Amino acid sequence: xxxxxxxxxxxxxxxxxxxxxxxxxxxxxxxxxxxxxxxxxxxxxxxxxxxxxxxxxxxxxxxxxxxxxxxxxxxxxxxxxxxxxxxxxxxxxxxxxxxxxxxxxxxxxxxxxxxxxxxxxxxxxxxxxxxxxxxxxxxxxxxxxxxxxxxxxxxxxxxxxxxxxxxxxxxxxxx
Length: 175
Fold this sequence. Notes:
Elements lengths: L1 H16 L1 E4 L2 E4 L2 E6 L2 E5 L14 E5 L2 E8 L9 E8 L11 E4 L11 H12 L3 E4 L2 E2 L2 E10 L4 E10 L2 E8 L1
């Protein structure tokens, strides 16, 4: 019984040290801060222990694929204004962690203009073409870079620049 209590206390201590407080609320340290047209946006999830919790920003990496997901708000507790999705592909193992990755919208013929973003996303996934979306809009071009990554600690930092109809969004993220 003492060992179980000690293990739970140790886990709680580790989780709480992975947090920071703002206005009396504990948040995970992982965050994304972005700027678009002079407005700053933030994504930092309040600390919670729940199997249904969605913790963003999120970076998932494997040797030839990587994905980034963020829900940006004008304030930590506000409604999400921008949903950023970046999916990267490479034929070279490990290349996605070394240097700036370019994202360019490719020519694509959609069968239905109402489903363009969905069809484009499927086309890119099927053909292993890097792409990005802000909300449901396919990004025209941009860059994405992981500036540091530690697989054992699941620790990462990075930055991005995405150009779409509202302007150029620049951001930094990490934990």
